[in-house]
Amino acid sequence: MPRVRPQPLLSVADVERASRWYQRILDATSGHGGPEYEQLLVDDVMILQLHRLEVGHHHGALADPACPLGNGVALWFETPAFDAVVERVRRANAHVVTDVHVNPNAGHREIWLRDPDGYLVVVAEP
Known about the structure:
This is VOC domain-containing protein. By secondary structure, the chain is α/β, with parallel strands linked by helices.
């Protein structure tokens, strides 16, 4: 296990809706569930946390509700099951920003999406 492990957390308008979207697109599972907070897992490893925008819990607000969500943020996921992700994206009628293409810098295929809250989500093959 690496000494530092990323655990990104997104502020979202509707945790349960966002959770369903990420579960469907990334073939993730719910590790917590609920309307205020969620942990999404792949192969029993947390890949993403979701937090309701208006809920402060013990730490106070995480984002300003007056500002657009996702501005300047790109969530990048790498998977050897790239073709399966693309198939799920198509079935879900997800908002595709840039369809499947080869990244000229990395030399791999990727697809760029917007999640229900406007975050840019990139899924790439290794």
